[in-house]
């Protein structure tokens, strides 16, 4: 017992100071290496098409698989973290990411890229990123919000640097050697993981006593005797499986909490069009006569502006004026993102595309800064991790399907403008759905509250079906978190 207390005191001393800031630096690099990486795939789009004689739809499958696995692998990563720890998960992810890109340099068909660059690299990036964010919850308590905000700047750095590096290496040595070099760069995730040494164990509550008869049943099993009440045991096993699914995938919240239901459906629908400009902007610019170097610069412009706008958006949304109203800021950002796509349809000149990237980046900053904050507003914090698990899996499905289906439309019409028409349709319709639905839900809740006796301690969750008590600041972070970034 004294050892547990000593370990707990050691863990507390390591938080918010000293080595914690080195861990934060490693988290910034991790997010640049993992979340920022898929943005550069558009630079290779045309070369891969010519190399494998593939259509737009076929070529877009492997970046779609990469992004979908990166976002949807959260529950698998959480199990890995729970069993082996954050450091192991980050280093394993770096090894898989590097292996995937090295293998991609030897691929002989576009379908082989689906496995190597798509699944293996995507899964490795998921492990490294999500475990890297989870470990921040252990190293930071007082400065946790600041640490997460600083770590998220790594995404913008990746958006800025990856396309420029990709275009340079592509011009100098071709896509195969570039992918080989990328494999070596992604192995640096292992270095970041090595920095994230275990902080020590926090004091754990005592284990509950076993029920009478449980040891007898265990003895029967060890002696080879059949367990009593086999039908009851099978029922208990099914119940356990259901409880596990409910823990990691919050189907009960989805059915009972209207706010969570609306938000999850809206964001899932939004993701059908959200990733399309990242995949097709560079091919669209090249197709319309923009130089390859300048076309790659477009993605970097989006990342550079994100570095400055995203933190400002986070500070603005944190003002008390927007408490309980952040969903409307988020809806406005999604609407602006959808409307900005019409700029590309008007003209494909480089100066016009730069203007498009500036407006798109501002809208993206709002979406990225608010996505998980809004989710915290509509879901009780004690169920946030499981709610986020279902949330990320559903959005990963539409992230997977959006680019290939749009690529098929481009193949049929031979017109890249349909990419931006499609993106605008999904984004604008999602914004209208969420905005109008939350307005209706808020009015319904106000009418319901007006007909009841007001409570002394109303819930701070504006759209939850059931109130919950806010967690104390001193409470240790959850053992597992599913976190993604947009």
UniProtKB/TrEMBL annotation:
GO molecular function terms attached to this record: monocarboxylic acid transmembrane transporter activity
TM region(s), chain numbering: 21-45, 61-81, 88-106, 112-139, 146-165, 177-196, 262-283, 295-315, 327-347, 353-375, 387-406, 418-441
Membrane disposition: Multi-pass membrane protein
UniProt subcellular location: Membrane
Pfam family, one: MFS_1
Keywords per UniProt: Membrane, Transmembrane, Transmembrane helix
One Gene Ontology cellular component: basolateral plasma membrane
Bias-annotated ranges (Polar residues): 454-466
Residue ranges of the region described as Disordered: 203-231, 452-486
InterPro entries cross-referenced by the UniProt entry: MFS (IPR011701), MFS_dom (IPR020846), MFS_trans_sf (IPR036259), Proton-linked_MCT (IPR050327)
Domain of life the protein comes from: Eukaryota
Residues covered by the Major facilitator superfamily (MFS) profile domain: 20-447
SUPFAM superfamilies: MFS general substrate transporter
PANTHER family (alphabetical): MONOCARBOXYLATE TRANSPORTER, MONOCARBOXYLATE TRANSPORTER 6
Protein's name in the database: MOT6 protein
């Amino acid at each position: 017992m004294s050892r547990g207390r000593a370990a707990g005191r050691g863990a507390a001393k390591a938080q918010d100071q000293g080595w914690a800031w080195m861990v934060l630096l490693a988290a910034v690099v991790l997010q640049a290496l993992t979340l920022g990486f898929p943005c550069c795939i558009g630079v290779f789009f045309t070369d891969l098409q010519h190399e494998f004689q593939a259509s737009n739809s076929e070529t877009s499958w492997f970046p779609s698989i990469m992004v979908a696995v990166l976002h949807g692998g959260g529950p698998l990563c959480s199990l890995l973290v729970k069993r082996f720890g954050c450091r192991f998960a980050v280093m394993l992810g770096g090894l898989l990411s590097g292996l995937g890109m090295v293998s991609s340099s030897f691929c002989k068909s576009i379908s082989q890229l689906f496995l190597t660059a798509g699944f293996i690299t995507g899964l490795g990036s998921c492990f490294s990123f999500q475990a890297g964010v989870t470990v921040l919850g252990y190293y930071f308590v007082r400065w946790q919000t600041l640490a997460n905000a600083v770590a998220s700047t790594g995404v913008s750095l990746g958006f800025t640097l990856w396309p420029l590096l990709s275009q340079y290496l592509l011009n100098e040595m071709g896509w195969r050697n570039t992918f080989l070099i990328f494999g070596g760069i992604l192995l640096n995730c292992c270095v970041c993981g090595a920095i994230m040494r275990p902080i020590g164990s926090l004091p754990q509550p005592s284990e509950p006593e076993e029920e009478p008869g449980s040891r007898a049943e265990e003895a029967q099993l060890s002696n080879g005797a059949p367990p009593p009440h086999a039908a009851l045991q099978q029922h208990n096993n099914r119940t356990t499986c259901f409880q596990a699914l409910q823990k990691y995938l919050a189907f009960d919240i989805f059915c009972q909490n209207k706010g969570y239901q609306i938000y999850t459906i809206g964001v899932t629908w939004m993701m059908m069009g959200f990733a399309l400009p990242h995949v097709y902007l560079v091919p669209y610019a090249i197709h319309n006569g923009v130089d390859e170097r300048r076309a790659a610069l477009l993605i970097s412009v989006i990342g550079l502006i994100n570095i400055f706008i995203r933190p400002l958006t986070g500070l603005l949304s944190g003002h008390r004026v927007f408490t309980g109203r952040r969903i409307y800021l988020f809806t406005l950002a999604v609407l602006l993102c959808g409307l900005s796509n019409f700029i590309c349809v008007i003209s494909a000149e480089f100066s016009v595309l730069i203007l498009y990237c500036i407006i798109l980046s501002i809208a993206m900053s709002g979406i990225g800064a608010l996505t998980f904050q809004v989710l915290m507003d509509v879901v009780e914090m004690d169920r946030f991790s499981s709610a986020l698990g279902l949330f990320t899996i559903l959005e990963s499905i539409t992230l997977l399907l959006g680019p290939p289906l749009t690529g098929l439309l481009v193949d049929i019409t031979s017109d890249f403008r349909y990419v931006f028409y499609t993106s605008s349709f999904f984004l604008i319709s999602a914004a209208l759905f969420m905005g109008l639905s939350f307005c209706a839900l808020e009015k319904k809740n106000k009418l319901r509250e007006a007909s009841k006796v007001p409570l002394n301690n109303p819930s701070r969750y504006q759209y939850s079906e059931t109130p919950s008590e806010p967690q104390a600041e001193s409470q240790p972070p959850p053992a597992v978190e599913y976190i993604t970034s947009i």
